[in-house]
Amino acid sequence: MSPGPRLRVAYAGAPGSFAEDAVLAAYPAAEAQPVPMFGDVVAAVTEGRVGAGVVPIENVVGGGVREVYDLLLDTDAVVVGEVIVPVRLCLAALPGQRLDAIERVYSHIQALTQAEPFLRSREWTLLAATNTAGAGRQIRQREERGAAAVLSPRAAGIHGLEVLADDIQAERRNRTRFLILALPDRDDLPVPVTAERDGSRRSAMAFSVRNEPGTLVRALGVIADHGINMTKLESRPSRAGTWEYVFWVDVDSDVCDSGGPGAPFLADLRSVCVWVRVMGCYPRCIEPDI
């Protein structure tokens, strides 16, 4: 019997990006499909052009990726997994360039933030790019002298750049967490190889509460009363009204298990919220060694 088609997984960026690292870490045999922007990843998933997509959701240094939170609230795709990728950054330029000759440094704004102490040690002009690997590809395509990119050593090699300074990230244990997205009825996806083997699971939810004293406390109290560990709380402006907010919560529990504790928990949460949406329930990821 011949093997089936390879799983195609979309990511935003260029070959060598940390998002491509996330795809290959979760699904080593997958075909990683680069697209320009985070919204293009979501579109590729919802339109069925790929089986899954990965998007960054938070970084140890830079915090949450706000654009992704907003995108996920407006899509039918659900979260089916997570991948945590170590972030090692280097400064790279065209072969033969010297550090003293660099005037401009390109990278994604998150990477520039993660390497800020190193970058501020010299009077370089810092320029934001769409993604880290794309910054390196741009320098190579333009043969741009006097310019360098902050990117991974793997991306530097892929795009023919020479490393001028290695391990420039401020946080030595820097890492980015990515979410794996798929359509709700896509039940044939393999379990990511990065998933915990003990069966522990996590759920991503979003909810809104009335703009009244104590409403958020009551919602969080439901989580505490059910003995559920909350690992993430992020707020984003709501489009429903001015100065109103949507809250994104990650919990160490499978709230999708309607036959287990998930049903009474969600019922109690909905009783104190304007609305609740479960974004997905998925296996927790193994923390990578750095």
Describe the protein's architecture and organization.
With 290 residues, this protein is an alpha/beta fold. The protein has 3 domains: 88 residues, D-Maltodextrin-Binding Protein, domain 2; 76 residues, Periplasmic binding protein-like II (D-Maltodextrin-Binding Protein, domain 2); 83 residues, Alpha-Beta Plaits, CATH 3.30.70.260. The chain has 9 helices and 15 strands. The strands form 3 sheets. Strands 1, 2, 3, 4, 5 and 11 form a 6-stranded mixed sheet that branches. Strand 1, helix 1 and strand 2 form a beta-alpha-beta unit. Helix 8 packs antiparallel against helix 9. The longest helix has 11 residues. The mean pLDDT is 92.
How would you sum up this structure in a few lines?
By secondary structure, this protein is α/β, with parallel strands linked by helices. The protein has helices spanning 18-26, 38-46, 66-72, 109-114, 116-119, 132-142, 153-158, 215-225, 262-272, and strands at residues 8-12, 31-35, 52-59, 63-64, 78-86, 90-93, 104-107, 125-128, 147-151, 162-165, 175-182, 201-208, 230-237, 245-251, 275-283.
